[in-house]
Amino acid sequence: MKNTLSAALAVVLLLCMATSALAAQAPTSVEQRNVNGTEYVIKTYTMPADADAAALVDEDFEQGGYIFTHFTTETNEIPATESKSVTETQTVETESKELADVLRKFPSTITYDKDGFTGTLVLETGSIATEAAGYTTSSYTISTTQTYPALMYQDPSAIPQTALKNGATLPLTGVSWAVTGTSLAGETLVPTEYTATATYSKAVSTQVATGYISTAIYTGEVSREVVTGVTYTLTYIGTAIPEPTPEPTPEPEPEPERAPWGRILAGIALLCALGGGAAVYMFVRTSQGVAVYNLIEDDYLCVGRQRLDLKNPVVDLNVFSDVMQSNFFSFVLDKALTRKLYGRNLVVTLGDIVMTHRVKEADGKYRFNLEVGVEL
User: What's the pLDDT at 247?
Assistant: First the structure.
């Protein structure tokens, strides 16, 4: 009981899957249209972009008195626009870290083009950051001079030993003296006043940036065109199915004279004696169906007949290999067979060669030629 229930559930699941697959390929519209006297059926499908269009083509079908055959498939993509926000970081090298100098290195906008997305990104000025690319040691000397006037003696101790400049304390490194006043001592002039010029200096070193690296952020909306689906328009062209012509009612044949039973039995016995198998073979070869003709010298000669299976109509030429002399054949279908096979494909085989011919008429006997092994 449990196994039976499981099997039933599996069958239901398979049916649901098959129904879903058929629904996925169902046309969104079907229209039959007459254009300049020709009938067309137009089927429209809306499918995903990766769908197989060949799987949508139907085999020949009948509708409204016509047999419709696939004619053309037209494909139209369904476009859409996909957008997203993008942030890009740009880096530049500068010789200065001043914002005004750095801003001149960054354009106000940049173009974005990646993975099919395009757009314009705008500079976020508040995002700019600058840092030193590296450092080097720089040495230099700080110096200054001071003047001390109205000194009575050349006394170095009267000169301050240090001086300040730009916040740095500089030691005294040299003093020069100048006489700025004299007086007589007897008959000799002697210096009475001096001016001292003091020099202060100091060698210093510091770390100096070798350059600067600045980064900035650009933001904006970018977009691209994508294909969300495809519309397939399949056109089928119709061929009218002719009305079947009724066969004339045969006139009754005169009843043959009764033959004596003795003669009939004697004839049957004679046929059996001559070979019943040969008689049956000739009956099959000459029964109604398709007559096979082969080009022998300059004329098509009948080499035999074959009955055809209407479900799988195949003419097997291999049975005529002992009498055929060329690859040129002509085939004649009787009236009944022509009506039954109209619009269908007839298969002809010879060895490994398989050829197909579509029956194009519905009334009377139908004849067609094939060069077996050559595609026409």
Answer: 66
